[in-house]
Design brief:
By secondary structure, this protein is an alpha+beta fold. The protein contains four helices and four strands; from the N terminus they run E-E-E-H-H-H-E-H. It has one domain: 2-Layer Sandwich (Double Stranded RNA Binding Domain), CATH 3.30.160.
Amino acid sequence: MSSHSLIWAAVPHNSDGVVFQVRIVHGLQRFYVSRRVLEHVFDLEPKATDARQLELFYKFLKRILARAGIKRSVAGSDTVALQATDFIVQSRSDSNSMQRSISRTTI
């Protein structure tokens, strides 16, 4: 996502995560990372302040922007929520064994 750039990031008024906007192909896309995702994926402590949520967001900015680019590579009008599962990276051996097990059950 090196060609994409962060425009702004903020914590919404309900203190639940971070909303951010990125310039991507032909436009702007807004994304949302909830407090729950920040807690489960990035080890945000419970009841962390808004400032701490933003601090953690910027600490993992490259990783978050990379996943956002995979989830939505062309701009749209809606806000895209990033889920914890978006940050799970399967190893190649895991995906190969999954493919083998799927092909065995379909034979």
